[in-house]
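Objective 1.3, modelling of assemblies. Example input:
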Amino acid sequence: MAGAKLDEIDRRILAELQADGRMTNVELARRVGISAPPCLRRVRTLEEQGYVRGYHADIDPRALGFEVHVFAMVRLISQSERDLSAFEQLARGWTLVRECHMLNGEVDFILKCVSPDLSTFQRFLTEELTAAPNVASVKTSLVIRGAKDEPGVPFDVVEARARASA
Amino acid sequence: MAGAKLDEIDRRILAELQADGRMTNVELARRVGISAPPCLRRVRTLEEQGYVRGYHADIDPRALGFEVHVFAMVRLISQSERDLSAFEQLARGWTLVRECHMLNGEVDFILKCVSPDLSTFQRFLTEELTAAPNVASVKTSLVIRGAKDEPGVPFDVVEARARASA
DNA sequence: GCTGAAATCGCCTAACG
DNA sequence: CGTTAGGCGATTTCAGC
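Predicted structure (tokens):
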């Protein structure tokens, strides 16, 4: 089972750093109840083993002028692995596309997009996305308002599972 | 225009902190070409003015045992503001739901969910989400594979717009 | 008003027990 | 894992542009 090698201190370290990635190591150590040096060693190990992929400032898109958020459902003509990969590669190059996930069911991909305004998005939609090779159809849904946007992982579930398997 | 009050140094600070939120202030100052004290002041100001909402470690969900990612499209019976808000409030309480966005069109909400396994998600889906008051229907799509998941904002677009309006 | 320089304080991070 | 200790970064103060 993944995550089984982590003890409770490791899990608390991850939870604290997810909540505040710029916390000092001393403060982190205090919160998890150990001294600073072993705490730092644990953090380095967690980073090396891939539990922590990075640290990012959470920038407000609207403060920088990205007023428009859109989900785009993309259907492709061909679902061969070659063509799926080709579309993914294309999506990685579009900076307005922040996320791209392959789905089961009728829709092949869901894309989460941001844009400064509608006309910029419309231009991207018609000239880039819909015009891309192998794209059969694109259905877009504007985000009217965001109700929840939590980064990362629910650590209450992590803890519940850890206790259950103990 | 939002973001107009930022000069190029501010934008570079935001871009650097988005890419590496744990960078030291000294390193950040070096990269943007000013000395540490004014750099720190700018960071504090950007935080206070809401450009930076926080800092988060990017934890790999799979490393912690979250093997399942699902998008859920929710239709409600009533779309009155009172009922929309009630559903949003409910969604904020479900920790498996990481994002909840209100959409235009037929679907009222899209939810991004994580789960340790399918059975846990099925239980959540049938006992919580579908069973919630005012929910008319829920369509779920499993994420087969993630192709792109970039946090935050495309700073190439930010820079292009800044140059265009200069 | 900003920036940069100097100084203090606290943290990071080895080495060792 | 904890303690010690040296070096570096963070942060305030103050002067200059």
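DSSP finds six helices and five strands in chain A.
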